[in-house]
Design a protein that fits this description.
alpha/beta; 12 helices; binds pyridoxal-5'-phosphate; about 350 residues; Rossmann fold; about 40% helix; 2 domains
Length: about 350
């Protein structure tokens, strides 16, 4: 049991490092620290396993034997879930959005219909059952997963559905805990002073990380402001989603009253989900060369671009103490070897 009172598995090899990356200060215009949540674990690493600590604990408590979840074809969340399910002896069923899907979400994809690399390779190795779904079916993902869950239950299984990105109130508690971890690192003097950061910057894809970060940053006095950088949808959409998840999280823990001020930054979405502009690609490469920080093209590369742009626009003060939350995504970069 944690202080929030919810059962939790221990999947994260924490605390993850909090590192100073002074070689990026000139490039970005701020004083930069990075929270290495790309290093939460091994092949399952990234931000998603912080949420899965709570979600899969709940599934096990309920006696579930089959986990259903969804995402884009190269979803980091789907990959993390597939790998952790294999660790726990749970069956994993994935619904992955794919432009070439046949239009029958109940159909299990054959190996030669799937991309050969990146997250999908790991999904397959971990033994996940993969269903490809069209964009329209994905828009109905809740209903699609519920209908498969009912089929599994009729056949005697015990399904448990995890929403896109693991982003609900329960999953978001993983990032409240992450902020407790950062507070401990500030208290140890790992970021010059015990004072809170001026801003935390992180990528936003389904809202659960942002919800947990704004709740945890307020509760543990970790940051004066949070910038959630939209990787896909617009700021109005994410503001609604994040508010809903915050409300759900509070139903688990009455102490989660305050939130840190949140900016949903939609200015670095680039040409499309998973697609970078030339300028964004250039920054990703420069960051890698200047500091050995490997960002991904779907999320963290865009978040870093938004950070640089915010300073250039004067939205974020030059020289501010900034914590960049590196949420992972390396397999997504490796799946774009043709682009880089
Ligand atoms: C999922 C993901 C995000 C976004 O987190 P959400 O909680 O879904 O908003 C950011 N970075 C990476 C690498 C991710 O896989």
């Amino acid at each position: 049991m944690t202080k929030t009172g919810m059962r939790r598995l221990h999947l994260v090899h924490g605390p993850t490092p909090l590192v100073r990356r002074a070689s990026l200060d000139a490039l970005l215009g701020v004083k930069l620290w990075i929270k290495r949540d790309d290093a939460t674990s091994g092949a399952e690493a990234g931000n998603k396993i912080r949420k899965l600590e709570y979600l899969l604990a709940d599934a096990l408590t309920r006696g579930s034997d089959t986990i259903l979840t969804c995402g884009g074809i190269q979803s980091n969340h789907a990959r993390a879930t597939a790998i952790v399910c294999a660790q726990l002896g749970l069956k994993c069923v994935l619904f992955l959005r794919d432009a070439t899907a046949p239009g029958d979400p109940s159909r299990i994809a054959k190996r030669d219909e799937l991309p050969s690399g990146g997250n999908v390779l790991l999904d397959r190795l971990a033994g996940a059952e993969i269903h490809r779904v069209t964009r329209d079916e994905y828009a109905q993902r809740g209903a699609v997963m519920e209908s498969e869950a009912q089929r599994i239950a009729r056949a005697g299984g015990k399904p448990y559905v995890i929403p896109e990105g693991g982003s609900n109130g329960l999953g978001s508690l993983g990032y409240v805990e992450a902020m407790r971890e950062v507070r401990g690192q500030l208290d140890l003097g790992l970021a010059d002073s015990r004072a809170s950061f001026d801003e935390i910057v992180h990528a936003c894809g389904s809202g659960g990380t942002a919800a947990g970060v704004v709740l945890g940053a307020a509760r543990f006095d970790v940051a004066k402001r949070v910038r959630a950088v939209a990787a896909c949808d617009d700021a109005a959409y994410f503001s609604r989603v994040i508010d809903r998840i915050i409300g759900e999280a509070r139903s688990y823990d009455a102490e989660l009253a305050a939130t840190a001020p949140l900016v949903v930054d939609e200015s670095s979405r680039g040409p499309g989900y998973g697609v970078m502009s030339d300028e964004q690609r250039d920054l990703l490469a420069r960051v890698a060369r200047a500091s050995g920080t490997i960002l991904d093209p779907v999320y963290t590369g865009k978040a870093m671009h938004a950070l640089a742009q915010a300073v250039a626009r004067g939205d974020l003060a030059k020289g501010a103490r900034v914590l960049f939350l590196h949420t992972g995504g390396l397999p997504g970069l490796l799946a774009q070897d043709d682009v880089f």
